[in-house]
Write a structure and sequence with these properties.
It is built from nine helices and twelve strands. With 307 residues, the protein is α/β, with parallel strands linked by helices. α7 packs across α9. The chain starts with a helix and ends with a helix.
């Protein structure tokens, strides 16, 4: 074979073969049988395959429960590969803790494995409203790495609470009032006191107040979550933490935004004045502070103005 042709063969193969997921999904065991993946705290990129969030799984003697299916089919496949390194038990349930793309767009892969997909009714409504737009945005960003991904909705829904008993392991799915997105929910293991908090908790990076967010509901949901007194929290973004850190970096920041904007509105301050007089510097150490602080302040002011 001509030497030049031999040199070209690897490149030709790469062009005509699908590109596998580049993500190395490393899950750590937080308590026996409960595993967490800590995703990139940056923004969505081609390199992180849109998986800039945490997920997890719970191993029982009767099957595995996955917490959030990931941003794409390929990411879900990588989650499944990580599970297979730990257990041969099948994935029985997948819980979507909210309507953000990285919480549920991997559903198709797990459904194809026979898993039942569960989410709060409010999360499903959010998925229906924003799923097409999420896929469009990811298509432009991820290109080939979005292959196989479809907006597959959960097949079981609940309003405020769903109890699962899988292999004798008690698992509670709880929806309070949403917050970051309308359907934000938590997965609570009362015996182990481990909480998968979804987007009700951000640490190590500043939380974002989105157009679909509601700061007042976020605070109410956080207060309901606090009553569980979790010992270990797997946040939606950032490292595994305790309740004290979650309070400092999520609850206290939301309280600052809401209390300042309420005072500004009571004084008749316009939007620009309210934003300019808000001192958020206590949170400047968190990633994305410069990017998000202005939009967060604006949206909370408008939320309170139109209550």
């Amino acid at each position: 074979m001509d030497q030049f042709v031999r040199l070209l063969l690897p490149y030709a193969f790469a062009l005509f073969c699908p590109i596998a997921s580049a993500l190395d999904m490393q899950f750590r065991e937080v308590v026996p049988g409960v595993y967490a993946y800590i995703g990139d705290t940056g923004m969505r990129t081609y390199e992180n395959e849109g998986m800039n969030a945490n997920s997890g799984f719970i191993v029982t003697t009767a099957g595995v429960v996955v917490v959030d299916s990931g941003s794409t089919w390929k990411v879900a496949e990588a989650i499944h590969a990580a599970i297979r390194k730990v257990t041969k038990q099948p994935v029985k349930f997948v819980v979507n803790t909210g309507g953000q793309d990285h919480r549920w767009l991997g559903n198709g892969f797990f459904s194809a494995q026979g898993a039942e997909i569960i989410a709060a009714r409010a999360a499903v409504d959010d998925m229906k409203a924003r799923g097409a737009a999420q896929l469009d945005a990811l298509s432009a960003l991820l290109k080939d790495r979005l292959a196989g991904t479809k907006a597959l909705l959960p097949t079981r829904t609940f309003d405020s609470k769903q109890a699962l008993n899988v292999g004798g392991r008690e698992i509670q799915l709880l929806h309070f009032r949403g917050g970051h997105t309308p359907g934000d929910s938590v997965v609570w293991l009362p015996v182990e006191r481990v909480l998968f908090a979804g987007d009700l908790v951000f640490v190590d990076r500043l939380l974002g107040v989105l157009p679909v967010s509601h700061a007042g509901n976020s605070l109410a949901s956080f207060e309901a979550m606090e009553k569980l007194a979790p010992a270990i929290i797997v946040p939606g973004h950032g490292a595994v933490c305790d309740l004290a850190k979650a309070r400092r970096e999520t609850r206290d920041y939301l309280r600052l935004l809401v209390s300042h904007m309420k005072r500004a509105l009571d004084k008749g301050a316009d939007l620009q004045t309210a934003v300019d007089t808000l001192d958020q510097r206590a949170y400047a150490h968190l990633r994305h502070y410069e990017t998000l602080r202005g939009g967060n302040a604006n949206r909370v002011y408008l939320e309170l103005e139109f209550q």
